Amino acid sequence: MNAAQPEPTKHAPLPASTTEPPPEPSPVRTHRWGLGAFFFAQAVFVLVSVVLAAIFGTPDALAIVVTLILPTVVAALVAVAITVVRGNGPRLDFGLQWRWSDVTTGLSIGAVGLVSTTIATTLWTRWMGPQNAHSTVSGLLDGVKLPPALAVVIFLHVWLLAPVCEEVLYRGLLWGAMERLRWSQLNVFLLSTALFAIGHLEPDRTVLLLVIAIPIGVARMVTGSLTASVVAHQVNNFLPALGLLLISLGLMPA
């Protein structure tokens, strides 16, 4: 007789894994806006400006403040809406998020830009005369004494809000449109800087605005983040905003 064969050892079933593999991240959509989106936002800026000018006619102090602030804010909101509809929103598409590294880089580059801008403005005033060194904003406020509350509003707009709006348009929407065309970062920097200077519609100050825009664009280029260029722009605008505050309060001659 054959010897009885031992029964095979039965192993207990392996326990089911209690941890599920991490889900794969959802692919981030590439934004789908181009240069047309930027020019559309610029057209909105011009349209709002024209409508306000037609509404107010001969503007008083409040009308001047509204005319200075509203077109820029509306154009920036249009730009943000475009990123939501045709992309992933400003946080992802512009890198518009709070990171200390971007803030400190923006502060450092902005401080250097403030020095270079001050020197360039002084030289420009000597060469071209003071009448060609004044911005459109200072021209509108020339001879207008604003109530303190409105003067502070203008100061905060020029110092803090206008840089955010302009950066969203030029180094956000425009920058992203050119990146989508696969232009090199240098070409994107050069063209956005040029259009920033031209887009202020101040022909007598275009060269000076180019000098002002260079460090701001550098902050955007080296960090890849709009946060850095916004901070650099705000640092650069502080002294002009302070000057406008003093002029509009009648504490300093225009």
From TrEMBL:
Top-rank taxon: Bacteria
Pfam families tied to this protein: Rce1-like
The keyword Membrane belongs to this UniProt entry's keyword annotation: yes
Stated name of the protein: CPBP family intramembrane glutamic endopeptidase
The organism of origin for this protein: Saccharopolyspora rosea
Region annotation Disordered: where it falls in the sequence: 1-28
Sorted UniProt keywords: Hydrolase, Membrane, Transmembrane, Transmembrane helix
Annotated CAAX prenyl protease 2/Lysostaphin resistance protein A-like domain residues: 150-239
InterPro entries: Rce1/LyrA-like_dom
Signal sequence, start to end: none
EC number: 3.4.-.-
Record GO terms (molecular function): hydrolase activity
Residues that span the membrane, as ranges: 33-56, 62-85, 106-129, 149-169, 181-201, 207-223, 235-252
